[in-house]
Design a protein that fits this description.
This protein is of the alpha+beta class and 292 residues long. The protein is built from ten helices and twelve strands. The chain starts with 7 loop residues before the first helix and ends in a 7-residue tail after the last strand.
């Protein structure tokens, strides 16, 4: 599948489309991307139109229209969530007080229909509102390469340039070998975050317990400026304090948050997800009431 990049307006809108939408919209663009030559998305709640020479022969007009309308609904929901969060979070990125943290956790739990909290079993991070920066891909097994992690030309264009991290994640390889690599391993690397586990209160006194707690722990990461969100897992420790950032995200996480281009840096909320039965999948997620 190939995308034409000569039209700058098209390229901008294409990236915005992929960056903002979860599961269903991503599948649409991956399946029909070679057919989409021009994309125009109207304002909030506005009409969405897609026009492509010969497109109707490959995909019914109604299906295109329905999918586009759904994407507009997703964007509307994101904006509504962002507006709600803007009324709760402080003006400056920093530590949240207990009232702010509780209000945000309650809002996110309701909006995403999942138990979200800044603390589980008495364990918490040093921050739940901070700056995230883009990270590289992690080695999933001995001999892994960035080429092995890219499925399509779209994947390479969006995520391949990030390259591979020079070292392993905090828990080592995700699998002992390529043959033993599971779908769960693939998802864990794809949607991983690095958090400052070493700065968690009482970490130094409880290294073993905290290490086990943080390993692949799921977190909900939300861009409060846009409402875009992703369910990620902790697969690395960092970044260092001197960087001025509080966490890092895989190329796919950054893209899901709308931070995949430019400085690849921005303010995010990140809260633990209480999912002991492993029922909540990793990946981009939309607010309650919107099917993804």
């Amino acid at each position: 599948m190939q995308f034409k990049t000569t039209n700058k307006k098209y390229e901008y809108l294409r990236k915005k489309w992929i960056a903002k939408q979860a599961h269903s919209s991503q599948k649409l663009i991956e399946k029909h991307g070679s057919l989409i030559r021009h994309l125009t998305i109207g304002g909030l709640g506005g009409l969405v139109m897609l026009t492509t020479p010969g497109l109707s022969a490959a995909m019914p007009d109604q299906q295109i229209y329905d999918s586009a309308q759904k994407i507009t609904s997703l964007e509307d929901k994101n904006i509504a969530l962002a507006k709600t969060l803007q009324g709760i979070i402080p003006d400056q990125v920093g530590s949240l007080n207990k009232v702010q943290e509780d209000n945000i956790a309650k809002t996110l739990s309701e909006e995403f229909d999942m138990p979200v909290s800044a603390e589980i079993n008495g364990i918490r991070l040093n921050r739940s509102y901070g700056l995230i920066g883009g990270e590289q891909h992690l080695y999933r097994y001995p001999g892994d390469t960035v080429f092995n992690q890219m499925d399509t030309t779209v994947d390479w264009a969006m995520y391949g340039s990030a390259g591979m991290a020079p070292g392993l994640g905090a828990w080592g390889y995700f699998a002992p070998s390529k043959a033993q690599l599971t779908a769960e391993d693939i998802a864990r690397e794809k949607y991983y975050i690095a958090v400052q586990t070493f700065l968690a209160p009482s970490f130094a006194e409880n290294v073993a317990n905290y290490r086990d707690f943080f390993k692949y722990r799921k977190m909900l990461v939300v861009n409060p400026q846009t409402g875009q969100a992703v369910v990620a897992d902790i697969a690395d420790a960092g970044p260092a304090e001197w960087t001025g950032k509080q966490l890092g995200g895989s190329p796919e996480v950054m893209q899901a948050l709308g931070l995949g281009s430019g400085s690849r840096k921005g303010a995010v909320l990140y809260f633990f997800i209480d999912d002991p039965n492993d029922q909540i999948p990793l990946g981009p997620i939309n607010a309650k009431g919107i099917e993804s």
